[in-house]
Amino acid sequence: MSQPVFVLIRPQMGENIGAAARAMWNFGLDRMRIVDPRDGWPNQRAVAMASGAGRLLDEAGLFDGTADALGDRTHVFATTARARGLTKPVVTPERAMEMTAEMIGRGEKVAVMFGPERAGLENDDIARANTLINVPVNPDFASLNLAQCVLLCAYEWRRQTGDAQAERVELAGTEWASNIEMEKLAEHYESRLDEAGFFFPEHKAEGMKLNLRNLWSRMPLTRADVQMLHGVLRQMVRWKERGD
Amino acid sequence: MSQPVFVLIRPQMGENIGAAARAMWNFGLDRMRIVDPRDGWPNQRAVAMASGAGRLLDEAGLFDGTADALGDRTHVFATTARARGLTKPVVTPERAMEMTAEMIGRGEKVAVMFGPERAGLENDDIARANTLINVPVNPDFASLNLAQCVLLCAYEWRRQTGDAQAERVELAGTEWASNIEMEKLAEHYESRLDEAGFFFPEHKAEGMKLNLRNLWSRMPLTRADVQMLHGVLRQMVRWKERGD
């Protein structure tokens, strides 16, 4: 699938460019453009920070101005931390990446702009954007840095387009116990505990048995768990029989 | 609303503890617990990095062991980057924070554990968790650091519980143009362009007028935009009348 390009406008610290590359590649994005980086290009600090994501820097497009960097794009997002006095749609990162996936699906070319560390994007850059992205941070403390903002947008891209299952169970070399296995486990415990005199007094025995069966059935047990619980009980019996 | 506690297990670098505090507070979370930090506690590097979020460090609970730190919790999540060979439910950060909001809503006390920078949580810690959180990163490049993992979980907490509108328009001191204002704009342009001989040849005039009206109606214009477009046209007429 095509992907959006992330455009860093006048980034200052090489470390932050490298960290942005890592953040992108963590979520499978590898198309970066850079406009007028303060310390020139290439930048050794960026390379050192990017480590495993250095390819993004090698392949990054370098541009003199924002207009050039956006020239081939049909929809441009700009990330901003505050209102700018320009009438413009404002969306969450979630909605932005949902829109991006839809637009790319119908052949559009999308850019997401990120401003320089200290001051963010200038209004001249903002005016070039179709839509603003505003991360819904704590209004009392909004201190996202460049790479964190890139990270959240890249994360949302993958969340909108990836195939991550919201919920699964890691089964460590086993599978869920079947009903018959659970039944046999319940019987094993019930009969041994009966022998051991656990179901006492007698008028409560039926209720206790029911509760014990219910306990087993509430447990999401694997075959390995069931084997372990059989083993626990057998060992208690062996211990008792050894009489030590 | 109550919130989950984020528990840093044996964190190594003070800077990362400070960055984790900032990441939490960016999304309105301020209950941190710390288990056995490598460089002792308090940690000046953590304080320096936390800056505006230093209160979280002052108020953080310090514990000798994981069991103590989790003692009062009813549900524990553990963040992991890789499979651990322990049978356990695994969820995305999104699902984890949705579950957390539900559980807190019914009075449960939730913790989210984060492991040390280098190796992540040990299996002894993982075994104490009810549920694992796995960030769906690029399988070819999974290099999230501690503060980034905290950031994504905190972001998802706010996304699940906050009131951020997915989409809104920042209206800079104006409001949307009404239908009658759009109508008058269309008429103004149509009549002046008629005078100017724009709708030519005559057999195409009706179609051109329709297309022009349709163009206006596709534009999401504010009252300020409409005034500007009236002004543009008036100025062109004045310029023509000056005859220079």
TrEMBL record, chains A, B:
Alphabetical UniProt keywords: Cytoplasm, Methyltransferase, S-adenosyl-L-methionine, Transferase, tRNA processing
One cellular component (GO) term of this entry: cytosol
UniProt xrefs under SUPFAM superfamilies: alpha/beta knot
EC number: 2.1.1.200
Ranges for domain tRNA/rRNA methyltransferase SpoU type: 5-155
GO molecular function, one term: tRNA (cytidine(32)-2'-O)-methyltransferase activity
Subcellular location: Cytoplasm
Keyword Transferase applies: yes
GO biological process terms, semicolon-separated: tRNA nucleoside ribose methylation
One protein family per Pfam: SpoU_methylase
Enzyme class, spelled out: transferase
Coiled coil: none
Gene3D superfamilies named among the record's database cross-references: 1.10.8.590, 3.40.1280.10
Family annotation (InterPro entries): Alpha/beta_knot_MTases (IPR029028), RNA_MeTrfase_TrmJ/LasT (IPR004384), SpoU_MeTrfase (IPR001537), tRNA_m1G_MTases_N (IPR029026)
Reaction catalysis annotation: uridine(32) in tRNA + S-adenosyl-L-methionine = 2'-O-methyluridine(32) in tRNA + S-adenosyl-L-homocysteine + H(+); cytidine(32) in tRNA + S-adenosyl-L-methionine = 2'-O-methylcytidine(32) in tRNA + S-adenosyl-L-homocysteine + H(+)
Function: Catalyzes the formation of 2'O-methylated cytidine (Cm32) or 2'O-methylated uridine (Um32) at position 32 in tRNA.
Subunit structure: Homodimer.
Similarity-based family: Belongs to the class IV-like SAM-binding methyltransferase superfamily. RNA methyltransferase TrmH family.
Protein name stated in the entry: tRNA (cytidine/uridine-2'-O-)-methyltransferase TrmJ
